[in-house]
Amino acid sequence: MDTEFDLISRYFRRAAPAGMLGVGDDCALLAPRTGWQMATSTDLLIEGTHFLAEDDPGSLGHKALAVNISDLAAMGAEPLACLLGLSLPRIDHTWLAAFTEGFHCLAQRARCPLIGGDTTRSPAGLVISVTVLGQVPAGQALLRSAARPEDDIWVTGLLGAADVALQLRLGKLPANPDLLAATRDALDRPDPPWSFAPALAGLAHAALDISDGLLQDLGHILEASHCGARLDYARMPIHPAVSRSGLDPDVIQRAVLAGGDVYQLCFTAPSEARDEIQACARRADVLATRVGVIREAPGLHVIDAEGQAVSLPAGGFDHFS
Amino acid sequence: MDTEFDLISRYFRRAAPAGMLGVGDDCALLAPRTGWQMATSTDLLIEGTHFLAEDDPGSLGHKALAVNISDLAAMGAEPLACLLGLSLPRIDHTWLAAFTEGFHCLAQRARCPLIGGDTTRSPAGLVISVTVLGQVPAGQALLRSAARPEDDIWVTGLLGAADVALQLRLGKLPANPDLLAATRDALDRPDPPWSFAPALAGLAHAALDISDGLLQDLGHILEASHCGARLDYARMPIHPAVSRSGLDPDVIQRAVLAGGDVYQLCFTAPSEARDEIQACARRADVLATRVGVIREAPGLHVIDAEGQAVSLPAGGFDHFS
Questions:
Q1: Which of A102, A248, A241 is CA-nearest to residue A181?
Q2: Which residue of chain B comes nearest to A210, CA vs CA?
Q3: Nearest C-alpha in B relative to A209
Q4: φ, ψ for residue B69 (rounded to 5)?
Q5: Cβ-based burial of B140 (10 A; exposed 0-12, middle 13-18, buried ≥19)
Q6: Smallest Cβ distance to A319: which of B4, B34, B224?
Q7: Is A222 within 8 Å of A140 (Cβ atoms)?
Q8: What is the DSSP string of B2-39?
């Protein structure tokens, strides 16, 4: 019979980086650089709500960490370390090996090593909790409340693919294996801009990740910053597989503006910072696109290429509605 | 319909202490004192494994945080802040109000404010994840590997009550309402020595909390520190309701030596530190008792008042065996 200790040493324990204490004591130990703050966030992923038992375990391990690293990126923080809580209905070594491989692989790439956690049995279904710890120079974190009128509005990465993949998988769009193959990685293996985001601290103003959809998430910035915005739909960096999919333009527009599960950033920055932002994005191999502007007057308006108002899809994703 | 945002503002959001950013952005922000390290730990509590749906929600809120604060205490760290992940089968305002009251009440008393989290729906059962963040002077954390031969072995608080309450509740001991009333708080409302533990950093050597039972947990220290120990059963601070319960001495001995869920410390310290440890314990209103000694020779021996070997109950609690 495998004990909790066997599982920890087989799947979770890795050498901790210099200056940290990792898995094996009551707590992990780490320190931010002198004069820096720690940023921290936690997510709970529940079987049946956020994923299904039959989902690919490697992708699940990757995504469980990615959605949390995305929260660090949204503060302009660089990853330091993470904690993993895992509750299992049964011990399935094939599943555990693939899950932890997906998790550790991103952890290593993003320099966010696993330094602690909890493993336990769950009678009902699989539960994954991830807590990330990052660091950002004191006072430079990108807050939702920091957008200012005339700021450019930027997004990183491409929009529309995660939502199209989800709708295809749910059968809400007609089956299209080629389109699913081209969009599924956006949904299953999101790659938040962890190497680019720290460059925004001290350069950009407000930021968040597009987990609930661009309109809803930008709405959080506008509410917290007491301002409004205009988005130019023609500027949106739509995933090319979505643009050329032949899907109804309204379906694409909904995917781009309201589709959630996009672990990329929406941020605002003064127009003087445009060149430096683009230079940082090139260095990090991240696509950064200006899609609109913050305005003093409240309200969120989207205009098309002719300057006409685009009618907006209702709401984003809420975990309880 | 309550949205996730409604629940957050009603039950979870509290003013963050000066210098921290609390609930409401992608991450919380905080910093340890200059020259201190952060200590962090996470626990997953699952309905059906760690608690039952009908358990008192106020006690559950208290205990979910207490077991994590206990991990900080076991490093000699003082609490800084915590994160709460909560996954709910349904929204029950009576339950949520009582749970968060129990949680916030301990958070305030232990100066461990809630600064972030995640709330989501769970189809199967209630899931609680708590992550704590604490701070300890760099290099002074109490590690499991730091016990040295001739160290005194100490425990805080009283032993035996949590296990007796659990056995009574499981029906494994004959029903005894008075005994249950006298012991249930040890199980349901554990009060880890969070105000005493930071005084041990720099004074004691090794420490951990007695979550899996004294013998198993001390075994972890001995294994990590490559040494052995002798415990004096006659010195054990047995809860008075247990001592005078009339229970079979073997049942009591098992509860004292192997009973888990005791969120108190077992720690080792040089004999020169005895007076200072007792003075610190008095100031913190914590009972600290010397119960044995670390020895160079491997092996864990328990002797009775006559110096005779006590036969040991098998193992502690493992979440997968």
A1: A241
A2: B26
A3: B26
A4: -60, -30
A5: middle
A6: B4
A7: no
A8: --HHHHIIIII--PPPTT-B-BTBSSEEE-PPTTEEEE
Quick one: closest CA in B to A124, which residue? B124
The predicted structure's pLDDT at residue A149: 97
User: How far is A225 from chain B, CA to nearest CA, in Å?
Assistant: 12
Task: Order the strands of the B127-137 sheet from edge to edge.
Answer: A28-30, B36-46, B127-137, B78-88, B114-121
Report chain B's terminal Cα–Cα distance, integer Å: 42
Which residues on chain B are in Cβ contact (under 8 Å) with A39? Answer: 27-29
Residues of B with Cβ-Cβ distance to A37 under 8 angstroms: 29-31
Q: Quickly state the pLDDT bin for A1 (edges 50, 70, 90).
A: low
Residue with tokens 């509605």: A321
| Domains defined along chain A, listed by start | 4-137 (3.30.1330.10), 144-303 (3.90.650.10)
Cβ distance B77 to A21 less than 8 Å, yes or no, reads: no
User: Using CA atoms, how far apart are residues A49 and A43, in angstroms rounded to an integer?
Assistant: 13
* Higher-scoring residue by pLDDT: B25, B292: B292
Which residue in this structure is represented by tokens 């913050």?
A294
**A302 to chain B, closest Cα gap in Å:** 24
> A127 and B87: CB-CB below 8 Å?
yes
Q: For chain A, first and last CA: distance in Å?
A: 42
ipTM of the complex, rounded to two decimals: 0.88
Q: How far apart are CA B1 and CA B134, in angstroms?
A: 37
Residues 6+ apart with CB under 8 A from B120: A44, A46, A49, A50, A319, B4, B85, B86, B87, B88
With a cut of 70, say whether residue A260 has pLDDT above it: yes
Q: Give the count of beta carbons closer than 10 Å to the beta carbon of residue B249.
A: 7
Give the Cα separation of A84 and B126 in Å (integer). 18
CB atoms within 10 A of CB A97: 15
Q: Is A118 one of the annotated binding-site residues?
A: yes
C-alpha–C-alpha distance, residues A64 and A50, integer Å: 10
User: Would you say how long chain B is, in residues?
Assistant: 321
- Chain B nearest-CA distance from A238, in A, is 24
User: H-helix or E-strand containing B81?
Assistant: strand B78-88
Q: Tell whether residue B71 is among the known ligand binding residues.
A: yes
Predicted confidence (pLDDT) per residue in A29-66, tens digit:
999 999 999 999 999 999 988 888 889 999 999 999 99
- Specify the pLDDT at position B313: 64
How many Cβ atoms are within 10 Å of A203's Cβ, its own excluded?
17
